[in-house]
Amino acid sequence: MYSKLKIFTGNANVDLAREVSKYAGIPLGDAEIFKFSNDNSFVKINENVRGANTFIIQPTCYPVNDNLMELLIMIDALKRASTKGINCVIPYFAYARSDKKDQPRVPITAKLVADLLTTAGASRVICMDLHSEQIQGFFNIPVDHLSSMPLFTRFFKAHLDLGNAVVVSPDTGGTARARLMSEKLNCDLAIGDKRRVSNDSNAEVLNLIGKVEGKTAILFDDIIDTGGSITKMAKVLIEKGAEKVYAACSHGILSGRAVENLEKSPIEMLYITDSIPLSEEKKKCDKIQQISIAELLAIAIKKIHNEESLSILFR
User: Fold this and answer.
1) What does the pLDDT look like over 247-266, one tens digit per residue?
2) Pick the CATH number of 149-291 from 3.90.550.10, 3.40.50.2020, 3.90.25.10, 3.30.450.20
């Protein structure tokens, strides 16, 4: 059944790919991937993939452009090796926040990346928790949009006291996401109101909608970058009377002074998935805990290969 299923990985998140391979019971494909001294990337597939259904695990995390280019070259190499299908497993999809023309003379980079992947030869894309769901429509090939929500809800039910909890969206844009989480955990909902003051990561918290006094607050978002917004919101929650504050997100970019911001904040613990690998420095932070998505991806890969429904993964 799986003789024609091949799983390859780029250099973006090798540890995650190994875990996916282990859960799937399928060894990682043999590929040679490196950079020449002139900074050009090189890919060689070292095994027969003719007629195979191939999956490339490659989040486009830091260094974003290098990992994206590596993915495009891998797609081209597999296409020229006569694979039957090229499925790009991109747990973290970079440029997802550039999904609309919200200022004069700016690009829609998420659409550009979708076009690049399609033109290179991708036949399907598997993503997780896109910043905005309409990005699926940027592709003219099938997109399977997975969710980490079931993983987080099971984890919170097992490890947190939810008797007096409230799920908090850091901004109005994440309201639907936080509402779904609050429904699954059967707890209250609160919404932060913030204003982005420039094109960088700076944001100002203006208001809080909902009651948090005496409650355990769970800040829930899709991406945490520098951590500025989420730590400011955590301080507001404590000022409004919350007893404890936890935070969770699908993609922990944690760039710049994110670890420093987190350690100085009232956040008890930040829960993130391993869609993006943690540096050794970040692994030392006692306030960061990763939840693995390897089994989720392994199940999705095998079901897609067998042309089965993925609906069980959203329960």
Assistant:
1) 999 999 999 999 999 999 99
2) 3.40.50.2020
Catalytic residues: 194
Q: Which residues pair with 90 in a beta bridge?
A: 127
Banded model confidence at residue 312, pLDDT cuts 50, 70, 90: very high
pTM (two decimals): 0.94
CA–CA distance, 61 with 171 (Å, rounded to integer): 23
Q: Please provide the average confidence, as pLDDT, over all residues in the chain.
A: 94
Structure tokens at 288: 């960061």
pLDDT digits (tens, 9 = 90+) for 64-112: 999 999 999 999 999 999 999 999 999 999 999 999 998 999 999 999 9
Residues 6+ apart with CB under 8 A from 73: 41, 42, 43
Distance CA 138, CA 121 (A): 15
What span, in angstroms and rounded, lies between the C-alpha atoms of 48 and 17?
20
List CB contacts of 27: < 8 A, sequence separation 6 or more: 7, 21
Please give the CATH architecture assigned to the domain spanning 5-147+294-314. Answer: 3-Layer(aba) Sandwich (3.40)
